[in-house]
Amino acid sequence: MNLNEFDALSFDCYGTLIDWEAGITVILRRWADNRGVRASDEELLQAYGGLEANAEAAHPTDLYPDILARAMRDLGQRFDAPVSGAEAQALATSVPDWPAFDDSAEALARLASRYRLIVLSNVDRQSFAGSIRRLGDVFTSVITAQDVGAYKPSPRNFAALDEERRRLGIGTGKLLHVAQSLFHDHVPAQAAGLCTVWINRRHATPGWGATPAPPVEATPTWTFTSMAAFADACDAAAS
């Protein structure tokens, strides 16, 4: 199998293209310091990640800002520290401020010259509009949790992706899914029959961070440590 055998790439956004851990950490660290919570950034991220996933599973039709606020309040309960309405709202409205990884926009621009690009993201349309300005107008289609009425790893998201594939006339086996999260993306994508690329953004950092551990073993088809390395491999495959 070769990377040039595909006609389209679908992407997770947050964790893969946008550095959601950096964006979340700014809010969590400020809250923890203000409330006297003695926890490292990694401890905060790990606790938060599980709570966000729980909120998404329990409230699949809530918009992402509501999920963020709920998870922030749950984090306060986890650490036995108060979370004000303003503190919960600060996280809920922070998505447009989350930075893109340094290589995302350039890599996407290169990939867009060869493939059709689709986003499949656990976000709402309004929040994603703030992120797209950091990534460039390169996507053929955008599918959000708001559109699906469910959050990854629900198979409904990948059913929606397959429906969009067929609508665009992309052949069976010609769509490759690209993501950082084994939990949110690789396990359900492979269950849906997709080949996958793991952008292992945390390759130099132990632990899972804000992403829960996958419930079963996932074996990505390809693994790269950055979007730049993935784009380089695609360029090489086409040459």
Q: Strand order across the biggest sheet?
A: 3-2-1-4-5-6
Second-tier CATH architecture of the largest domain: 3-Layer(aba) Sandwich
Assign an overall shape: globular
> How many structural domains can be distinguished in the coordinates?
2
Helix/strand-derived category reads alpha/beta
Largest sheet: 6 strands, parallel
Helix content: 40-55%
- In whole angstroms, the N-to-C terminal distance is 15 Å
Q: Give the strand content.
A: 5-15%
Q: What radius of gyration results from the CA coordinates?
A: 17 Å
What's the β-strand tally? Answer: 6
Report the uncertain regions. Answer: none
CATH class of the largest domain: Alpha Beta
CATH superfamily of the largest domain: HAD superfamily/HAD-like
- In the CATH hierarchy, the third-tier topology of the largest domain is known as Rossmann fold
Overall mean pLDDT stands at 97
Order of SSEs: EHHHHHEHEHHEHEEH
Number of helices, counting only DSSP H or I runs of 4 residues or more? 10
